[in-house]
Amino acid sequence: MIGKVNFFITNMIGLRAAIALSVVYLASAQPVVTRQKVNMTVFYEALCPYSINFFRDQLPVVWPLFEDYLNIELVPYGFAEQSYENDTWYFSCQHGSQECTYNMYHACVLDKLPIVKAVNIIGCLMANEQEQLFFRKCTRKTQETKADIKQCSKGEEGRHLMSGYGNRTRDFQPEIKMMPSIVFNGVYNQTLRDDAVRDLKQVICNFLNPKPLECRTNEETEDYID
């Protein structure tokens, strides 16, 4: 009797091991799906009307749909000029000192928050011309970092961040000549930039192949990822 029990237990252990190995094999046999990523850099300035339009009309529509397909870099500096005197960075911005203040807000938001949250907050700020008045509203979901962002934007930390964005803008080739300048995969193309300010979703979809469901239109139903 004991022998039969041992035999049964041995067989059960063997069966379980076989099942476990089968599961491992099947899991390893499944293809690994790697999402495509489009690298997009946006050079902009906080009070530029064309930059505001892009953040108001294009980015809020596209970002929620394509954040899994986008590596996004925001560069809040524009056509500002910087100088270093008495151990401090000073800035002169195209649309006045208020724009410098807002650019610095954005720089600190980008430094203190993950890009997913930062894009949403900057989009909210850009939709309201009086950014200082709407700062509380736009950052209400990030209470733990709100004080850090404010402190950053009013001190040397924010100035150093903004100087870095100034260097990024100045060093980019070809020279940045319009705002916003939108760069895809590290290469500036004027036609793509012009298309992006009108229909960013279509530009992103043109880079993706096969196209995700987010790219489908009423007329197109084939060649999309399920």
Can you describe what's shown?
By secondary structure, this protein is of the alpha+beta class. It has helices at residues 2-29, 49-66, 97-112, 115-126, 131-138, 143-153, 156-171, 190-207; strands at residues 38-44, 70-76, 81-85, 88-92, 181-184. The chain has a 3-stranded mixed sheet. Helix 2 runs antiparallel to helix 4 (115-126), helix 3 crosses helix 6 and helix 3 (97-112) packs across helix 7 (156-171). The longest helix is centred in the first third of the chain and has 28 residues, at 2-29. The N and C termini lie far apart (56 Å).
Quick recap of the structure?
The chain contains eight helices and five strands. With 226 residues, the protein is α+β, with helices and mostly antiparallel strands.
Q: From N to C, what is the helix and strand string?
A: HEHEEEHHHHHEH
Q: How many DSSP H or I helices?
A: 8
Structural class: alpha+beta
Helix content: 55-70%
- Give the radius of gyration: 25 Å
Strand content: 5-15%
> Strand sequence of the main sheet, in spatial order?
2-1-5
The average pLDDT value, as a whole number, equals 84
Distance between the termini: 56 Å
Spans of 5+ residues with little confidence (pLDDT < 50)? Answer: 4-10, 17-33
Shape: globular
Largest sheet: 3 strands, mixed
Query: What is the quaternary state of this protein?
Result: single chain
How many E-type strands? 5
